[in-house]
Amino acid sequence: MIRQQEYNEGDEVLPSGELGKGFCILESGTLQVIRDNKVLSEIDIVGSIFGELSEILGMKRDATIRAKTPATVRHVEESISEIVSKNPKVAIKLIRTLGRRLYRMNQIATRGDNENNIFKKATATAEDDDSNDRIKILVVDDKPAIAKQLGEMFAKSEWMVESATDEISALKLCEHSGYSAILISMALPGETAVDLRRKLKTNHNVLNTPVIGMIVMGDENAQKKALNSGFADCISKPFDQNKTEALMYKIMDLDSSARYFKFIEDHLFFKLPPELSNFVINDIKENMDTRIKNTINEGILKLIIDVSELEDVGEEAIEVVGEFAEKIEDMKLPMRGAIVATGEDAEMWNNLDGCEEWSICEDFEEAKENLSRPPEEDDED
Length: 381
Hints:
Structural class: alpha/beta
Largest sheet: 5 strands, antiparallel
Radius of gyration: 30 Å
Shape: flat
């Protein structure tokens, strides 16, 4: 018996858990083979045979065949042995189908699912999508507190941190995953740090990943040892967040100004960190011109500066905001701005050159709302 059936997107063509008979042939559309909510493969070639293994092995199906797109399937509901006895050529086609399937699964097994992310979630989530694009860092230190400190520090940049306490666990992690950077404590026993760095460079997953040494502040011997052994650079314990982040951005060849400047929807968002050390101030100033040029290039005409988390509104903060506003004013850009500030002194930001017409708001959403209104409405307010 042969019947042809049409399926809508998401319909189950062959459910798992049943004992099948015969096989199916794809007439049109695309199907997915799903097990444990993971897509093992897709069937998208017209004439493809599938669903035959249940009868051949005498086992219930352990995977579901689901329509990824509207599809048409021909169900051949006759014993495979009877079909083959009538038409031996069917046996050859079944063998070729099974061979291609086995070849693909062997390739997947060799490379590894964790390493290549071949098995995609059948039901994707926003978190799954984001994790593929996020910076991931491996911290190797036998002191768990170090990994925790760095995890909390890097979380502010939305970087993921994984940790290992010794050489064996670090190598095992790198067998199945890649990293944007690897931090290794130079205080690990003996030559562990140097040996680990050398072994990592023979692993194709992290072959080109920068390896950074972690040293105790002032330990020049450890720093020299690391640099002579091929480490990209060193960071010192206890960690200075600004210096550590700046070095990490540099080593990973990322835009360090992303710590302060971000494009959110159609706004340039400039947020000052709670503490403005000389290092941070210089870092911001060095990136101002680049960020302004990028903003022009993106066609963005709305600017929000957030000073609400400043622990101390001193001359340095006023100078940084004022210099940024003046640069925009001097370039005669048709840009409108708002400042997120709280407290009794919030209105004083309007006294800065270039900020006289800017709105003073309590949070980002209020600033967005103000900038979404035509300029005339602002004047009326």
